[in-house]
Amino acid sequence: MPFDMDKEIVYSKTEVDRLIATAKDEAIEEAREIDRASMAKHNWDATIISMILGLIALSLFVDGLLRILGIIPPFMDLDVNILDDIVERVESDIMPYIQKYQRYLPGI
User: Fold this and answer.
1) CB proximity list for 69: less than 8 A, separation 6 or greater
2) Residues forming a β-bridge with 78
3) SS3 64
4) Is the pTM of this model over 0.70?
């Protein structure tokens, strides 16, 4: 009786193997495309997050540098300006030596 069955319903072993191989190849290609798209989205999201974090870190660094240099006024009365301290130290520690040995230093 198997020979009388409709060809649209019954497949031979080689036809089944061919259909499975085709479906497997299509599934693998679809999985690779999904993987590629998900990695591209992940890389884009990670890039944006890194840019935002980098910008925040850079802006905080510049803010601290400008506060140390005295260009931006102190925040909450925390004065971290070091330029005045450096000028005072140079005037008190180095200037006496420069004045003492001024005759040995040309151009001063």
Assistant:
1) 81, 82, 83
2) 75
3) helix
4) no
Residue with tokens 């001063």: 108
- pLDDT at position 15: 83
pLDDT in tens, 1-58: 455 555 667 778 888 888 888 889 899 999 999 999 999 999 999 999 999 999 999 9
Q: For 6-38, give one letter per residue: b (16+ CB within 10 A) or e.
A: eeeeeeeeeeeeeeeeeeeeeeeeeeeeeeeee
Per-residue 3-state assignment (H helix, E strand, C coil) for 25-56: HHHHHHHHHHHHHHHHHHHHHHHHHHHHHHHH
How far is the C-alpha of 78 from the C-alpha of 63, rounded, in Å?
Answer: 13
In whole angstroms, give the CA distance from residue 105 to residue 33: 74
